UniProtKB/TrEMBL annotation:
It is an enzyme of class 3 (hydrolase). GO terms for molecular function: beta-N-acetylhexosaminidase activity. Belongs to the glycosyl hydrolase 3 family. This is beta-N-acetylhexosaminidase. The keyword Hydrolase applies. Residues 616-977 form the Beta-lactamase-related domain. Its EC number is 3.2.1.52. It catalyses: Hydrolysis of terminal non-reducing N-acetyl-D-hexosamine residues in N-acetyl-beta-D-hexosaminides. Keywords: Glycosidase, Hydrolase. Pfam families: Beta-lactamase, Glyco_hydro_3. Residues 69-383 form the Glycoside hydrolase family 3 N-terminal domain. Gene3D superfamilies: DD-peptidase/beta-lactamase superfamily (3.40.710.10), Glycoside hydrolase family 3 C-terminal domain (3.40.50.1700), Glycoside hydrolase, family 3, N-terminal domain (3.20.20.300).
Length: 1023
């Protein structure tokens, strides 16, 4: 085990003591923090100079039992693919049998085939082979699109929380063990200070030696603490080259002092702290070895004298790939491998011709260029390393469920967390981030360098109505003119620039035509640039005031960038390299999340995503199979992140009808009471314009002399005013007969004269009759005085109260004060005015009143007779927008950096009415009466608030679990008499599934924020 005395001053005393002290203190803290994890897995110990008695006994036993060829074979690690077919596989098998090779290095293919081959090859080998992969950014480096690709190291270099780097190393280690891999050729410790480096570039943590060292250390610890041998590369430092060593031999002409100061620094540090192996690069470094055309990998002064003796490295030394032109160009067959052994390397990686290599090494032994003692020392090191990797005995990982195990939800969640932490706001002169919808302009997405709509653009749509434009990397004058015509002076333009997709460089093409377009946009509107490519691309963008660096065009990075721009996530990244004076190393503004609804994986917020999905999928299948509803949308959010949002079924039971989308807009029915009317009353209370303890008659003079005049507003909100539940107003407008139809006295099929109140597309009511509706409400008795009775009538009156006090109808007031500024484009009354009909599922085939399919018009008959706008029904919306509205309430009235309601008002309305076991003010709450059927999930806290809707909708927010649950359906189609959804308790069971999937329930302390009336509640049965 490497020493646990952490200090760098003995290594390089010439460096700034203050900076070194801070750096080492932080590193020591991190190591101590991880100390408990050392016992969670078999830790790989990198120092091969110290053996336990058990290790010594095993190494001696195996070594003495081996033939000369078997010993020599341990020093070879050959190439293996899982996609090259039978001939390649036969070649690998032949080399295993004939040369007793000690290791395999896997490249492209599929994970399933790779594991199958690994198990097959291991079964052929008398001593288990050491299996390796280049997994710098995870298995996806070699198995892309099938396994997870984490951010490349340059993006990781932007992250300020190094715990995440450790977590990534630990997760990659888990995946490698599952795939039967023992060695990861990572981390890359090259200090990349050459923007033109063609092979390192995005593979480096950046240009700062301290940042490279700290992150390299954490990555290494994550791997080795979890049983994987890490390999630091490319010793002695490949960061300042402009030649690809795969193609030729790069030359580094720096002095020894410079090499000590920069290139060698991270390697020196990690040697001290336990790195298990090093990879010797193919570089010509005259200051270390003046011989011409002598690669560092074949240099005894570099590998033995510097790395082994001067730096004191006691682990394994791998060569870089020996097929590379940087090493083969100047040496004959087999000579490269023999020279590498003579120079001091232990394992020969990817020999071009293993047969020629065997002969050459034996010749060097005979000639004394390689000593027998030196060769034995190498073999023993390899054997000891194998023992520590558990390769003293063969193991064969199960092939079943491999891909699911590799790409599990927690691994995916970590990728998102890493990209979120890497986002870097280079500058923001106009303070445009977090982005707000302009009051007198629009949001525009300008996509550059990607031909089709990107995940970035798609996620932007979740934060408002955007105009989407696409341009190439070299837009013509005509294209530029056409684009500019669609952009107005008050617009905010979110321009995204995409890399060329190159594997290591990820350069963003910057043509003069493109820069000209950006200048014109910047001059005309407010421009926000997001760069999905390497940060060196920023050098061309110094003149622009707001720039977000996102590092890569990976889909997860695009999603993270969109959320960051709108404030759903904090931005904390710092540039890991210098691109220009205005984009210098460590540049980056830190933002605070402005608490917009974000998106994440369930595991990122403590929810078992697989369990949640399987439960809700089953509920949805059952409900649709039993025709409880033709379709539905279910959404679950926790801690401000939507982690489950899924659409099921179709708009109707016809197989030809439109499939449900998560963006569909549903008739929310009585959810209107809380998502519109109650919010409006809360706002007016906040503004001091309504006193809840005054009677309705104080504000509504038309109630004078009626039994409604003295009704206290607080009581009306809590359904404690004694009102009737509802009045079937429509029945008074039907004609006579067994099957009555709308009377021509009250309706016309086209708008004409006073017949202007739209009930459906082809039914218009006489506006005079609206007064009759009101009069029936005013004249209605109060049969429920002194007791709770749910009532629509109170919310008719509350909507009128909003109108009278504010001067705006309830729909106008809610839109102006909540929906528009929050960017909730789907929350609308009379949605057909702005939303396509085919986005709105129909609610009923009405054969009792409207004699038509009801789609886009409110289902509630009374609200329909009020022109679609009422306090109890009429609001339509999507699951996302409804969730965002309730997230605002969970955040005590704050959303997107703006305070919509005071915390005190939110608390007042979401606290139970005195003595009430179920109702708050306007809001429904968890029913605490054990003698009644539950209205929400048993595990929901007593503070949960929300509402149900007649059409099959529900929304609930739980402050204790920070959980929002939305269920939207059109269970009333084709008939509102179908109440199977209610009898099946589908809405409740869906919510219960969310609680059941919580991995770590919130511990509720006695008396913690639970209201006086909630004290008797059962706070849930989960352990």
């Amino acid at each position: 085990m490497a020493t646990t005395t952490f200090g760098f001053l003995p290594i390089l005393p010439a460096y700034s003591p203050s900076r070194m002290k801070v750096f080492c203190t932080v590193l020591l803290f991190c190591v101590l923090q991880f100390a408990p994890s050392l016992f969670a897995q078999q830790v790989y110990r990198g120092d091969l100079s110290q053996l336990t008695t058990t290790e010594q006994r095993w190494v001696d036993s195996v070594y003495t039992s081996m033939s000369e060829d078997e010993r020599l074979g341990q020093l070879f690690m050959i190439r293996a693919h899982s996609d090259l077919g039978a001939d390649h596989e036969a070649s690998v098998e032949r080399q295993i049998k004939e040369y007793h090779v000690g290791g395999l290095c896997f490249f492209q293919g599929t994970p399933e085939k790779q594991l199958q081959l690994t198990n097959r090859y291991q079964g052929m080998s008398e001593l288990p082979m050491m299996v390796s992969m280049d997994a710098e950014w995870g298995l996806g480096m070699r198995l892309p699109d099938q396994t997870i690709s984490y951010p490349k190291q340059l993006a990781l270099g932007a992250i300020r929380n190094n715990q995440l780097i450790y977590d990534m190393g630990a997760e990659i280690a888990r995946q490698m063990r599952r795939l039967g891999v023992n060695v990861s050729f990572s981390p890359v410790l090259d200090v990349n200070n050459n923007p033109n480096n063609p092979v390192i570039a995005t593979r480096s943590f950046g240009e700062d030696r301290y940042n490279v060292t700290a992150k390299g250390y954490m990555y290494m610890k994550g791997l080795q603490d979890n049983g994987i041998l890490a390999s630091a590369k490319h010793f002695p430092g490949h960061g300042d080259t402009d030649v690809d060593s795969h193609l030729d031999l790069p030359v580094i002409n720096h002095s020894r002092a410079r090499l000590d100061s920069i290139e060698l620094y991270p390697f020196r540090a990690l040697i001290r702290y336990g790195i298990g192996s090093m990879m010797a690069a193919h570089l010509q470094i005259p200051a270390l070895d003046p011989r011409p055309n002598r690669p560092s990998s074949l240099s005894k002064p570099i590998v033995t004298d510097l790395l082994r003796k001067e730096l004191g490295f006691t682990g394994l030394i791998f060569t870089d790939g020996l097929e590379m032109k940087g090493v083969t160009k100047h040496y004959g067959d087999g000579e490269v491998e023999a020279e590498a052994i003579a120079a001091g390397s232990d394992i020969l990686l990817l020999p071009e011709d293993i047969g020629a290599s065997f002969k050459a090494v034996k010749r060097y032994l005979a000639e004394g260029k390689i000593t027998q003692a030196g060769l034995e020392e190498k073999v023993r090191r390899v054997l000891l390393s194998k023992y520590r990797l558990g390769l003293d005995k063969a193991s064969f990982p199960a092939e079943a469920n491999l891909r699911a195990d590799l790409n599990n939800a927690r691994a995916v969640a970590l990728k998102q967390e890493l990209f979120e932490a890497a986002m870097t706001l280079v500058r923001d002169k106009q303070q445009l981030v977090p982005v707000q919808t302009p009051a007198d302009g629009k949001l525009v997405s300008l996509q550059i360098g990607a031909a089709k709509t990107t995940p970035f653009a798609e996620r932007l749509d979740d934060y408002g109505q955007l105009t989407h434009l696409i341009a190439g990397s070299t837009p013509t004058a005509t294209e530029r003119k056409q684009l500019l015509e669609r952009i107005k002076p008050n617009d905010v333009v979110l321009a995204s620039l995409y890399s060329d997709g190159s594997r290591f460089i990820e350069k963003v093409p910057m043509s003069s035509d493109l820069l000209g377009l950006l200048r014109e946009v910047d001059a005309k509107a407010k421009l926000v640039l997001t760069v999905f490519g390497n940060p060196y691309s920023l050098a061309a963008l110094d003149e622009f005031g707001t720039v977000l660096e996102a590092y890569t065009r990976d889909e997860v990075a695009q999603d993270a960038a969109a959320q960051a721009l709108f404030g759903a996530n904090r931005i904390t990244g710092r540039l890991p390299v210098t691109a220009s004076k205005k984009s210098a190393y460590n540049a980056g503004l830190e933002t605070t999340a402005n608490y917009r609804m974000g998106y994440g994986n369930p595991e990122s917020v403590g929810i078992d995503g697989e369990r949640l999905t399987s439960r809700i999928d089953a509920l949805a299948r059952d409900a649709m199979a039993k025709k409880a509803t033709p379709g539905m949308v279910v959404l679950v959010a926790r801690s401000g992140k939507i982690v489950f949002e899924k659409a099921y079924g179709r708009h109707t039971y016809s197989p030809r009808s439109r499939a449900v989308s998560v963006n569909d807009v549903y008739d929310l029915a009585s959810v209107t009471k809380v998502a519109a009317t109650t919010l409006c009353v809360m706002k007016l209370v906040d503004e001091g314009k309504i006193d809840l303890d005054k009677p309705l008659g104080h504000y509504l003079s038309e109630l004078t002399g009626s039994n409604k005049e003295p009704l206290i507003i607080r009581d009306v909100l809590a359904h404690r005013a004694g009102l009737h539940s509802w009045i079937p107003f429509y029945r008074y407008t039907l004609g006579p007969g067994k099957h009555p139809k709308p009377s021509s006295q009250y309706y016309r099929t086209v708008q004409t004269g006073n017949f202007v109140v739209p009930v459906t597309d082809e039914l218009f009511m006489n506006k005079v009759y609206v007064d009759s509706v009101w009069q029936r409400i005013y004249d209605s008795p109060l049969p429920n005085i002194g007791r709770y009775r749910y009532s629509d009538l109170g919310f008719y009156l509350l909507a009128k109260l909003v109108d009278r006090v504010s001067g705006l109808t309830v729909d106008e007031f809610a839109a102006r004060n909540f929906y528009y500024p929050m960017g909730l484009e789907s929350l609308r009354y009379n949605p057909l005015r702005s939303i396509a009909r085919d986005r709105i599922p129909p609610t009923e085939i009405d054969n009792y009143f409207r004699m038509a399919a009801v789609q886009g018009h409110v289902h509630d008959m009374g609200a329909g007779m009020m022109g679609g706008v009422s306090g109890h029904a009429g609001l339509f919306g999507s699951a996302h927008d409804l969730a965002a509205l309730f997230q605002m309430l969970l955040q005590e009235g704050s959303y997107g950096g703006k305070q919509y309601l005071s915390p005190a008002t939110v608390k007042l309305f979401t606290t139970r009415y005195p003595g009430e076991l179920r109702r708050g003010l306007g809001f429904d709450m968890k029913n605490l009466d054990e003698n009644r059927s539950p209205n929400i999930a048993q595990d929901a806290s007593a503070r949960t608030f929300g509402h149900l809707g007649f059409t099959g909708t529900a929304v609930w927010a739980d402050p204790e679990e920070e959980l929002v649950y939305v269920f939207l359906s059109n269970r009333t189609f084709p008939s509102m008499e179908n109440n199977k959804l209610g009898r099946m308790n589908t809405r409740l069971k869906g919510q219960a599934a969310a609680y059941d999937a919580l991995a770590a329930p919130t511990v509720r302390k006695p008396g913690s924020a639970i209201g006086q009336n909630d004290a008797t509640a059962r706070l849930g049965k989960r352990p």
